[in-house]
Amino acid sequence: MADQPITLTPQGPPRTVLPDExxxxxxxxxxxxxxxxxxxxxxxxxxxxxxxxSLLAWHALGALGRDTVERYAxxxxxxxxxxxxxxxxxxxxxxxxxxxxAGNRGFLGCLKGLGEMADAIGETDEAERISLFLAQLxxxxxxx
Length: 144
Known about the structure:
By secondary structure, the chain is mainly alpha-helical. Helices cover about 60% and strands about 0% of the residues.
């Protein structure tokens, strides 16, 4: 049995696309990011409180966190919520989750941010695992 080749479909591994976030959430996140600083962080926190399943809101809260640990925590919550969302949308632990699909950007942004913060706090092995995971999810490069 081990000598038999594995045949993939012409499309390759399956691709999971999360639904786009609602317009009001995207708007709230854009306002938070545009404001920046403490005001932006407060706006991002309000967006998370109003939309706790929003991966974009968690990503914004991570991006606007006051310090590395706060940013790490927000990105980690977004990452775990993202895994739940992916599973609910058919992902089974493998296959593509591409940056080109707008609905995936909150999750991929949280994952990238989590890797950066893990590296910043000296969790090198976690940062390396996340880097590999991102490359597997989107071999085209994902979030810049």
